[in-house]
Structure formats: structure tokens, C-alpha cells
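This week, think about what follows.
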Amino acid sequence: MTLGSLFDGIGGFPLAAIKYENLMPSILISNKHLKDDCSCPECLQNYVANDVISRIIESGQIMVFTGDDYRYKKREMRGA
């Protein structure tokens, strides 16, 4: 997956930009974590361009949910 592929849009114009310009709501859901002081390849900032992160922070909020992997627990309970 390329840096911009999550936000490919219409006619080469990124979908995130279209929604931003038209004040349309967006929800970004990811299993990635925020970069804080981390430099691993699984940081959200390695998948989403900095300008998109900046727009989310400017006009929205980032909610981080942490916890155990429910799917992993479910597989363990089934014995898979």
C-alpha cells in the first residue's frame, strides 16, 4: 500500500481533500498506532500523509482505543 492509496479519489484529486474542502465528515479507522516517539513501520504516519494528519488534528479529534485483540481471543477460545 502506498502512502496516498488510502485517500485516492476522483480524477486524481484525493478524496480526503474533497471532503475537507466541502466540510464533509470523515472517519478514519485503523489498526495502526500514532507515532509519538516510535519509528517502527506500523505507525499511522507511515500510511497517511502528514497533511491529512494535520487536517484531522485541526478540525477534528483523534480517539485512540487500546485493548486486547478480540479476534485473537475468540480464536483462542475456539481452540484454533
Summary: The radius of gyration is 16 Å. The chain has a mean pLDDT of 75. The helical segments are 15-21, 50-59, 70-78.
